[in-house]
Amino acid sequence: MRHNKKFNHLGRTADHRRALLANLAKSLIEHKRITTTLAKAKELKKYVEPLITKAKEDSTNSRRVVFSYLQSKEAIKELFGPIAEKVGDRPGGYTRIIKLGYRQGDAAQICFIELVDFDPEMAKTETKKKATRRSRRSSGAAKAEAPAQEAAAAEAPAAE
After folding, report:
1. Angle CA(111)–CA(77)–CA(72) in degrees, nearest 5?
2. Is the pTM for the entire model greater than 0.85?
3. Helix, strand, coil: what percent of the chain each, to 5?
């Protein structure tokens, strides 16, 4: 029976899957964005986000724990350096998956997986967003209330 075996095995043995995810995580940390299949990206997200959370606290123990997963000194330096600085105040959700379409040969779904704080195009669009809240009212009702409130506010100082 398959009770509590919910993660995607990706058609590989446990050792092969561990090595695959470690290599994908190293590439993601070094390049900030990689292209892979959707199934691998979803598994990589589950694999790398706890490592990034661990990297927020720069201690010897957390470095050793992360190194046991990645086995790469360069990736550790990058993860505990610039990446940890940028995601220090973020509570989670360090990666983003963007679907690209289907691969020509086997029709597998292809996607980007990227670190959220390192995408310059998305950073430009996020600063342009308005901080207004939209209501479900029709625009006519909201416009009718505004002049009535302004008139009441204008009369209050005059009455004093």
Report:
1. 70
2. no
3. 60, 10, 30
* Token reading at 106: 């086997």
Q: Nearest-5° angle of CA 108, CA 96, CA 10? A: 40
Mean pLDDT score across all residues of the chain: 86
| Other Cβ atoms closer than 10 A to 77 | 13
pLDDT the model gives residue 160? 47
Strand partners, 97: 113
Tell me whether residue 64 is exposed, middle or buried, using C-beta atoms within 10 angstroms of its C-beta: 0 to 12, 13 to 18, 19 or more.
Answer: exposed
CA distance 96 to 82: 18
In this predicted structure, the answer to whether residue 17 has a pLDDT above a threshold of 70 is: yes
Q: Find, among 17, 70, 62, the residue nearest to 43 by Cα.
A: 17
Calculate the CA 113 to chain-centre distance: 9
